């Protein structure tokens, strides 16, 4: 199109109508630009370093999540941030990326070696996860940024050696960080610290780090940027605000990302007796009513081994995750679970978290029952604390991938812990299911052999959970098993439970710990030199300390209802299995190799007894 200059030397169209059409098009484009939703923003739009954007693209993160869109720009501007977002919303990347960007920017001006960022986490598992995230996001600037984690069981000499080179980022629990700041060597120098991050802030105090955090706060320079990430806003978070935000109030981000249609956790609950928990869990996994990867939460370490030995009676493979196992074994179990090596993890959840409302309710109950407790002749026994690793936690922080279902075999003792448990599934826009077993008051201690003290308050805790979920717009639906059909399997449950004695549990616990210590410590150097061999190390082998009953590993057809396995339940709670399907036949692949002609080649004829004698 020919153009001419007007009196202001601006090119104009020769045709007025065309000029008007072009103006309309520009207006439409401008309107589209201004009305582009925030959800369409990319990581490049957030102002990150190009090398970080490239690393994010390599991880196939298409666009930032809500917490990342809100927190990253604020952190890049140097503002203090206190962010509350649900589990699995991408909080780790929301603080790792701006911290890396800030370090790269500072090092472009001054390349002097110094520790510029301290990341405090409550558990060793979370520290390992954060360390790996930093490695991934700094893949294209690895020479410019070096991170060190202090949570491994290393000697003081090794820790001094790691810190002597002044790493840019230090990831640690508060206790280990303060030990290196205040120790004889003062290996960790915080003089040039620029960034302080407290991940899972609401857990740091509840895990017993209050004194360490208070001491660290006086060793940290004034005016540094502080970022707190938490899944809940509790009184512990308020206490940390007073400790670390003395000069000014942080920018508070209270984010609640709504689930899209068809996403989120389907929450189900079934009321049953204490022994019926074992009956239902057997039916669920032996008949594959729930397919896909699953995490089963139990109350303590002994319950882990009781359930694992119980599963062994039926040939159901599972692995254990608890605070008693070495940290290297725990980390490897999580990695292998995420790589789809294991389908079932039995995890003990000993760290209970109380929300503000729950604490108030408990205090009120204590005041109401104060007079009654004085008149009671028999005092209540306090539950003994577990002797495991104090830096262990499984219901929070750890990124379990592609979890199809969470089963609360033992209901947690707080509604907040329930929220954190079910947050292990339905992550990153996926769907998931949470099934909880609740023991009614009238069935408590009816089966002493399988009873635990926490079951006494199941109905009270369920009421709190229902109330908390209702505030979020979530519904917990009852799920009923067909009792007549399930009772057919009861005698098998009783046979298996009789074999799982206290002596068998104690022996299994000792054997598992001995095996894992051997794998974790003596083979550590070998696996460092031969990382591929680590893939062959399994954690779901049979302990075989209980009496074995071979007949229990098979389900006879006469026990199954005529209508099929789905008749055992009142509805369909299954998920798509992870097993391979034959696309052409539309069925599961069976044994045997596919021949060049397209058929399935038979196996060894000596095993099939169908070989034909060759004719002359």
UniProtKB/TrEMBL annotation:
Location relative to the cell: Nucleus
Transmembrane parts of this sequence: none
InterPro entries the UniProt entry points to: DEAD/DEAH_box_helicase_dom (IPR011545), DEAD_box_RNA_helicase (IPR050079), Helicase_ATP-bd (IPR014001), Helicase_C-like (IPR001650), P-loop_NTPase (IPR027417), RNA_helicase_DEAD_Q_motif (IPR014014)
Ranges where the DEAD-box RNA helicase Q domain occurs: 41-69
GO biological process terms held by the UniProt record: maturation of LSU-rRNA from tricistronic rRNA transcript (SSU-rRNA, 5.8S rRNA, LSU-rRNA)
Residue spans of biased composition, Acidic residues class: 359-370
The Helicase C-terminal domain, residue ranges: 264-485
SUPFAM superfamilies linked to this entry: P-loop containing nucleoside triphosphate hydrolases
EC code(s) of this entry: 3.6.4.13
Protein name: RNA helicase
